[in-house]
Amino acid sequence: LIDEPERADILYDNGVASYRLKDYDKAAEYFKQATTHTSSLGLRKQAHFNWGNTYVMQKKFEDAIKQYEEVLRID
Question: Are 35 and 62 in contact (CB under 8 A)?
């Protein structure tokens, strides 16, 4: 991440790690960055989905719905 801060796959993996550690604020930021730095629709879709999951854990349900709707828009 230090050498290549815009690599979407690394950002996504850091989001997953942060989510597993229950650091939902950090996870949401990593997933957000992953969505903006990837050209892969599959990775973008997965990042939005997991970003939505972080909002669910934070009880930010309207924000979660927006992320899930973005997944549907992509697919």
Answer: no
Burial class (CB in 10 A: 0-12, 13-18, 19+), 66: middle
From residue 4, how far is each of 7, 11, 58, 71 by CA, in Å?
6, 10, 29, 26
Under a CB-based contact definition with an 8 Å cutoff, are residues 9 and 42 in contact? no
13-56 pLDDT per residue, tens = 999 999 999 999 999 999 999 999 988 999 999 999 999 999 99
71 closest CA partner among 50, 57, 58: 50
> What is this structure's pTM?
0.92
Tokens 């669910």, residue located: 56
CA 31-55-67 angle, to 5 degrees, is 65
